[in-house]
Amino acid sequence: MARLAKPKPKPLYTWAYKSSQARGGTIISYITQLNPDHTLSCDCPGWIFNRESPKKCKHTRLAIEEVPGILAKIARGETLRLVDISTGNIVQQSSNDTTLVSSKNSANRVIDL
Fold this sequence. Notes:
This protein has one domain. It has three helices and seven strands, in the order E-E-E-H-H-H-E-E-E-E. Strand 4 (79-84) and strand 5 (90-95) form a beta hairpin. The protein has a four-stranded mixed sheet with strand order 3-2-1-7. Strands 5-4-6 form a three-stranded antiparallel sheet, with no helix packed on it. The chain is 18% helix and 29% strand. It is globular, with a radius of gyration of 14 Å.
């Protein structure tokens, strides 16, 4: 019987970190997300292959400083912006609507490393 992968939790907030070096001629964006259980995860190789508990990478270490402020904004129902990763333009403002958060093309905050 095939094992089914667990579905990823819908994030509360996402960061897109653009890689500092091109991979195969392309700049890659790694997505770090704040999960509903208030943990951080990332899709970069450093986080995926990390055997520490809890897992960490340079992206989650950068994001952790912003978590308390983001959780406070969510609790107050404040607006969170959604940014197009490729252009940096604001796509939509959301007020505690996590359905707008996270897609392959958007994040709440885009950061160049």
